[in-house]
Amino acid sequence: MTQQTHPYSIELEGISKRFGTVQANKNIDLQVPAGTIHGIIGENGAGKSTLMSIIYGFYEADSGAISIDGQQVSIRSSEDAIHAGIGMVHQHFMLVENFSVLENVMLGAEGGALLKQGIAAARKELKRLEQEYSLDVDVEAIVEDLPVGLQQRVEILKALYRGAKILILDEPTGVLTPQEADHLFRILKSLKEQGVTVILITHKLREILASTDNVSVMRQGEMVAHRETAQTDKEELAELMVGKKVRLKVNKDEAQPQQTVLSAKDLSFFDGQGVERLKKVSLELKAGEILGIAGVSGNGQSELLNVLSGITPMSSGEIQFAGQIISASAPKNAAQMRDLKMAHVPEDRHKMGLVTGFEAYEAAVLGYHDSDAYNGKLLMDRKAMLDECNERMAAWDVRPPNPHLKTANFSGGNQQKIVIAREVEQNPDVLLIGQPTRGVDIGAIENIHEQIVKLRDAGKAILLVSVELDEIMALSDRIIVMFDGAVVGEVTASDANERTLGLMMANAWNEGQGAQA
Amino acid sequence: MSQAKVPVWVNVGLIPLLNILLAFLVSGLVFLAIGEDPIEAAGYLIYGAFGYDEGIGYTLYYATNLIFTGLAVSVAFKAGLFNIGGEGQAYIGGLGVGLVCLWFDSSLPLLVIAPLAIIGGALFGAAWAYIPAYLQARRGSHIVITTIMFNFIASSLMVYLMVNWLKAEGVMSPISRTFEESAWLPYLHDLFAPFGFEIGDSPLNLAFVLALLCCVFYWGLVWHTSWGYQLRTVGTNPTAAQYAGIDNAKVTIWVMLISGGLAGLVGVNEIMGVNHNLLLNFTAGYGFAGIAVALMGRNHPIGIVLAAMLFGALYQGGAELAFEIPTITPEIVVVIQGLVILFSGALENMFKGKIEGLFLRRAAA
């Protein structure tokens, strides 16, 4: 690291945090010199957010120590963190939209029951802060009228107003236009000149290289490297971020792709806020192949799955599937897509794939609950459901094999088996499968991978979304990379390597570099 | 996960019982504060509710209404909807029952009128629930607000109809003419008399049997039909419902129709079973009490029957108590009911964590 003459602004020693069976942070050391911009990069699930939540007092670490300016501190709540001079700008802003900038800034620091004095003091202090850090915001403006870039500045002002000397920004550019992002980095530079320490969490390599002094790389809950930004380049960082992992071994033969069963053309999707989450995505899915969608999560993969499976209607574009043309004007819902023999293992089994309050045999028919197989004339055929559930539990080795156990009480891997078994056993033509092994133990991963390959060999078309790059590389026959809602690259599995995919995922790939290994 | 190790009887038996005991304990303090002996009062209350035939009959008669409204609140709650409009739906349901009786009482026998009146009550109640349901499903107006407002509308509408259209000729008060006896639902004491069972006179009538049938209907519908499956999915995980292709709006509307229909059956008990004419304010707060019954009964028909009987006993025993001890006014009885609702509904989870912890520690040891 840089000079050791003065204490670090913030220093972490051996921070560990475990959630159930998942080790989110493993023995993390980090030293951030005062008055620098420090970048932290890593894939999703690398543990960046957990680490920052620990620093900001949302979680308490299982072990380890935090020191601020050389003093060891105990941070048990965000109040402690603020007190210690830490400010945080969240990815999703924590602003009261119908309050003015001034009111938002003084929220929680009103200074007494009557507002008058507090407001006067806040106004004066804000003027000073704005001048000092050249943060131009109209303090009387109502927050919801401001563009996101300015809202973010309000968040920064809020932190500074509370005396933050260390400012943490979590994926700050995710919602910004390039111009707004440039402006943000100018602000961060001036903050740095005034002695504020900035910690920047991102997965965008360009930002790290353009704005930070030092960078730390996290991977799978561990801090794997610290670099001076000037001494590194994006290739090295991408490799560190993705890692040279031992390739997952999946026994599979060469794919035998056949006819196209599903083709999507120019699919776009705007969310409730009017943000374009899918940008003219086109893809073709052939029988007998596994098409992998790689990307850091939040880059449109979830929206793609939801649009393809009929859960959310597309905004424009069309899907050709099973002899039908599905478009914004002729939509099909999830039940209709299922009838066309499309199965879907959703990314989030708790939120979407299961009803955790249901018994296993009930959750095992979700989406197919109207099928004749489970219904008598009037009532549901409980015996048929139970019999089938017992059969599947045996075939898929679900433990414990108790169809009456609440779904919530199975382990992650077994829950996932229940979902995958449900979708696969319907013998679909197309299987959409998101994060098939998230939170699943090693033994079950192998089993699930085998089943996916078996399905491919049976001539099914499979679309695999995963943020685990080695899973994508091990299973896919063809790989598409998504960034910011758009497809940014496509490679065949044999041409794919971590470096290329990592650069594509960080949108730092230049066509000129070619696809060579 | 921790749920798994706590015995079921703790959650469905022990904790509710503790909550009720605590409510009675605090009620006892209230009695002490007004200078009455709580033990003596409790004696009157229990004797009044369960001590003799007529008392039991009254308790069950009150419980009948509460079962209907409790089921109504509960079925909507299963789909994640808070139907506060049971009162208005019961009121309008009663109108439906009354209209059927007024139209057909001199032309048709009871065996035909009874099913028609049941259908009429259910349909009118359902229709009253349909409007808030539609507004929620298609327009996003919050169902809590709209159902509350519809209680007031129902109340005004009934006054208008009674005064202007349905009032019997030559009467000074807003009541309809009394139905012919062919439109009277038989009392249970009359039904049992021919078999040699002598039970005391009370308003308990066949509607009680209908209420129990509704419990069976509820149980079958919610847990044994594909439709109930959708309903429960929407109620517990709307995202999963969307994933499964379940139409949330459609489920919302249907479940509110059923909820309103169940509430509307209060009219069968009150109008056809007891009053034998149409009148104002016969719902007397049963729609609101149904919320407490559903809460206490943990949205299960058996629980709802038990909770309805507890509340019925409080109504009946409380009336007896107020009669026996003049210093105890009916308002004090309302205080007891309020405390029961407070402790078993609002403060439901006060002991839960501690008691579960106790059992988990014991299991771990």
From TrEMBL, chain A:
Location within or outside the cell: Cell membrane
ABC transporter domain ranges (all copies): 10-245, 262-509
Major subcellular site: membrane
Presence of the UniProt keyword Phosphoprotein in the record: no
Gene Ontology cellular-component annotations: plasma membrane
Topology term for the membrane: Peripheral membrane protein
Pfam families from the UniProt entry: ABC_tran (PF00005)
Domain of life: Bacteria
Entry EC no(s): 3.6.3.17
Any one GO MF annotation of this record: ATP binding
InterPro entries per record: AAA+_ATPase, ABC_carbohydrate_import_ATPase, ABC_transporter-like_ATP-bd, ABC_transporter-like_CS, P-loop_NTPase
Keyword vocabulary terms for this entry: ATP-binding, Cell membrane, Hydrolase, Membrane, Nucleotide-binding, Repeat, Sugar transport, Translocase, Transport
Record's protein name: Galactose/methyl galactoside import ATP-binding protein MglA
TrEMBL record, chain B:
Compartments reported by the entry: Cell inner membrane
Membrane-crossing residue ranges in chain numbering: 12-35, 55-77, 89-106, 112-131, 143-163, 204-223, 251-272, 278-297, 304-326, 332-351
Keywords: Cell membrane, Membrane, Transmembrane, Transmembrane helix
CDD domains: TM_PBP1_transp_TpRbsC_like (cd06580)
Coiled coil: none
Signal peptide from the UniProt entry: none
A molecular function (GO) term: transmembrane transporter activity
Membrane topology classification: Multi-pass membrane protein
PANTHER family recorded: ABC TRANSPORTER, PERMEASE PROTEIN, GUANOSINE ABC TRANSPORTER PERMEASE PROTEIN NUPP
Name the UniProt record assigns to this protein: Branched-chain amino acid transport system / permease component
Organism for this UniProt entry: Marinomonas aquimarina
Organismal lineage: Bacteria, Pseudomonadati, Pseudomonadota, Gammaproteobacteria, Oceanospirillales
